[in-house]
Amino acid sequence: MRRGPLRLLHPTSVTLLAAVVGIAAAGAAWQGAYLPAIGLWILNRILDGLDGTLARVTDQQSDLGAYLDIVLDHVVYVAVPLGLALAAATDAAYFALAALLASFYINAASWMYLAALLEKRTSGAVARGDLTTVTMPGGLIEGAETVVFYTMFLLLPDLLVPLFGLMAILVLVTVGQRLVWALREL
User: Fold this and answer.
1) How many CB atoms lie within 10 A of CB 101?
2) What is the model's pTM?
């Protein structure tokens, strides 16, 4: 177990701080303060990347920490587009938001259950030696693409409706990729 100044900062504290910062980004977006929202969004993503690294470096990994990380990530993934749609306050923005969130819901079911099945079959994260808690087959839209899309949402709020729609379509393509993978592998 490593000791030192990093040991004083618990990874769960970083996870919680990331969530607060992400929700603040959503609040800034709701108020039309897009530049502060972008800064807060980027800080959220940095903190989200640091919590797991900190947990591994300080040997403080825990199932609870991993669980809180994914749940709070999803809170932020919902809050930011919601804040943007509330700022736009148009029927088109609300419809595009509904489509985007529906795609997220379907995607979450597709990868979370698949990850559980992989663990059940002992071919998931533990068996593969992954640094993360769960393993999922890759797809078109993953973490880096989400960061890019959300940044574009905040940079280009006038294009919110087509950007929400495009991301929803690409997320559903990712679901399709995982379904094809499951049909071949399960």
Assistant:
1) 17
2) 0.86
